[in-house]
Amino acid sequence: MRAHGHQLRGLEDRSFNQSSWEGLQEAEREYGVDAEALVSTSETDLAPNVRQAVDSGCGLIVTVGWELAESTLAEAEANPDVAFAIVDETVEAENVKSVVFDTAQASFLAGYLAAGVSRTGVVATFGGGNQPPVTLFMDGFVDGVGRYNEVHGAAVRVLGWDKAAQDGSFTGDFEDINKGKVLAEGFIDQGADVILPVAGQVGEGAAAAAVEHGGRR
């Protein structure tokens, strides 16, 4: 059996792209699956690359991210005998398995912990783009901080995301590390001592800013 993984942005994003590809590689080792990867560098690559995966004769095509939902659905409907899976998005089709995680639960715990360890009473979060898979993390983080405040009578503030307004701080990018660093430095200047990036590799910039400011979290 041949399986094809298709992602927008890079494979080494320390998130769903990377974990999906590592899963296919593990299947290759354990079950003799022939796994291949296609990486789109722009949105114009999406539909052609999914079509290429179909034309390659793969028995399973795994796409990753909401950007690929439309192309996945179109190819699944046109090729009912081909199996598809999409990670981090829901596509309604008989031959598509949607692999969705309730990421807000994990970020809720992160928010609760962040509020508990903050010494300044200010924490922050930012995203790579204002998209549901990103903002779901940010919602959970804000809820976790809110729960900590409720339980402990605290007043920890969250910068970077207004859950009610569904608006906040975004770099507009998932790869430019410098953008993450600049945004994180702005939060640190406002007193934040714990920052949760939801931006793939851009989060490395926030880590760099934390190191330069004496180990902020």
TrEMBL record:
Domain of life: Bacteria
Predominant localisation class: membrane
Compartments reported by the entry: Cell membrane
InterPro entries assigned to the protein according to its UniProt record, in alphabetical order: BMP_lipoprotein, Peripla_BP_I, PnrA-like
Gene3D superfamilies: 3.40.50.2300
Claim: Cell membrane is one of the keywords in the record: yes
Record membrane topology: Lipid-anchor
ABC transporter substrate-binding protein PnrA-like domain residues: 11-214
Pfam families xref list: Bmp (PF02608)
Keywords: Cell membrane, Lipoprotein, Membrane, Signal
Record field: transmembrane: none
Stated family: Belongs to the BMP lipoprotein family.
Name of this protein: ABC transporter substrate-binding protein PnrA-like domain-containing protein
